[in-house]
Specification:
The protein is mostly beta strands. Among the domains are: about 70 residues, Immunoglobulins (Immunoglobulin-like), CATH 2.60.40; about 80 residues, Immunoglobulin-like; about 40 residues, no CATH class; about 80 residues, Immunoglobulins (Immunoglobulin-like), CATH 2.60.40. About 10% of the residues lie in helices and about 40% in strands. It has 2 helices and 33 strands. The strands form 10 sheets. It has a 5-stranded mixed β-sheet with strand order 26-33-32-28-29, with no helix packed on it. Strands 1-7-6-3 form a 4-stranded mixed β-sheet, with no helix packed on it. Strands 9-16-15-12 form a 4-stranded mixed β-sheet, with no helix packed on it. The radius of gyration is 66 Å and the shape is rod-shaped. About 20% of the residues are buried.
Length: about 400
């Protein structure tokens, strides 16, 4: 048009309007954007990145329509801001498109992410310098590497006494009573920090000592950890022992007179015997009694028998020292001359022996009455004597006669 185009309504055109004259009207509608950004700054791994995509001023929304942004970066659709913290070294090629109602525009771009500059480790520290634990418990330690932007923040954990405490990525486990030191070491620079770990036993239960008997074992006192089940000879749990070390062996029986001196149990196979006075002799008229000793215990004494008859308590005396029985003289006088059998009866058996009663001797100054047998012996001797004398006389007479005849 080289004249004047007057339009008071809507002018819809899908082509080109060439006008060399005057177009007295407001042209309404949206012009398509034109991207003016042609390159982007280089980024660094671990360092925050910001870059804004621009157009010729036309409003637009943004999208990555081909390829992808570097890892860690994103594109804001409404503002065209690329931001974030790159996580890896790379060069990323991509296409961005800006669009509005009037149309769109695209641009091929790239972002190079350089490796991070090395920031050396200066120090490392632990959250605690001492961590007290009970056997079986766990605790946590936290490591802090300085500066916080150090490039290599890798660390290793170690224990100088794994039998007491172990460590796994900062988690400490108490194994047994004692002391361990946990050390953290940086991969960069070998910086270290330590934490002392005293480990104590759980509650200790006391078992008192018991003396052994003849037949039953005893035990020394000891303490048992309720947590770990170990045994100790002291209340502090410092000296570990085994249960076998606490055992006191049974003493066994020690027999005397057929009984154990400790528990009074009877001695198996014990047979009492007369150990003093066996085969004794007592003569009538003697003032003292006759004593016999049985090796049975005095406490086991039951009674005395003579010739199968139980004696009355008034017939004898009994005293300790194994068992000493003395038959009284008054009782012995009632017994006939000759041998008799004595039995001392005890709970552990009987002790038997014989003793002899002799007739009383003649009193000093008295002439004993001859016994019938003695008189017979004297008469016999007299007869023999007379016969001998007669024989001798006859022999002498015969010899005289022969001599006279010659």
């Amino acid at each position: 048009n080289e004249g004047t185009v007057t339009n008071s309504g809507t002018l819809t055109n899908h082509g080109t309007i060439n006008n060399s004259g005057t177009l007295p009207d407001n042209i309404r509608g949206t012009a398509p954007p034109s991207i003016t950004t042609t390159s982007l700054d280089v980024g660094t791994v671990g360092t925050a990145y910001r870059a804004t995509l621009n157009t010729d001023g036309k409003p637009a929304s943004w999208k990555v329509t081909d390829g992808s942004l570097p890892a860690g970066l994103t594109l804001a659709e409404n503002t065209g801001l690329i931001s974030g913290t790159p996580t890896a070294q790379s060069t990323s090629n991509f296409t961005v498109t800006a669009a509005n109602n009037g149309g769109s525009d695209s641009e091929q771009l790239s972002i190079t992410i350089s490796p991070a500059a090395n920031v050396p480790v200066e120090s490392v520290s632990l959250s605690q310098t001492e961590l007290r634990l009970i056997e079986g418990d766990t605790g946590a330690l936290t490591a802090t590497v300085e500066p916080d932007n150090a490039t290599n923040q890798n660390v290793t954990w170690s224990s100088d006494n794994p039998n007491v405490a172990t460590v796994n990525n900062g988690v400490v486990t108490a194994v047994a009573a004692g002391t361990a030191t946990i050390t953290i070491t940086t991969e960069d620079g070998d910086k270290t920090s330590t934490c002392a770990v005293p480990v104590v036993h759980g509650s200790l239960t006391h078992t008192p000592g018991n003396a052994a008997t003849c037949t039953k074992e005893g035990n020394e006192e000891y303490w048992t950890c309720e947590t770990c089940g170990k045994h100790f000879s002291d209340a502090g749990g410092n000296t570990e022992i085994t249960l076998a070390q606490t055992v006191i062996p049974a003493t066994g029986h020690s027999y005397e007179n057929g009984r154990c001196r400790v528990c009074n149990a009877p001695e198996p196979g014990f047979n009492p015997a007369i150990i003093d006075g066996a085969g004794g002799t007592w003569q009538k008229g003697t003032e003292d009694g006759l004593s016999f000793t049985s090796n049975a215990a005095f406490t086991d004494f039951v009674k005395v028998q003579v010739d199968g008859r139980d004696l009355a308590a008034s017939d004898y005396e009994v005293r300790e020292g194994s068992t000493v029985v003395t038959l009284k003289a008054s009782y012995l006088e009632t017994l006939s001359v000759g041998k008799h059998t004595l039995v001392i009866v005890s709970n552990t058996g009987t002790a038997t022996t014989e003793f002899t009663i002799q007739a009383a001797s003649a009193a000093d100054g008295d002439t004993p009455s001859p016994q019938t047998s003695d008189n017979n012996h004297v008469a016999l001797w007299i007869v023999l004597l007379l016969i001998s004398v007669a024989s001798l006389s006859a022999t002498a007479s015969y010899r005289r006669k022969r001599h006279a005849s010659h």
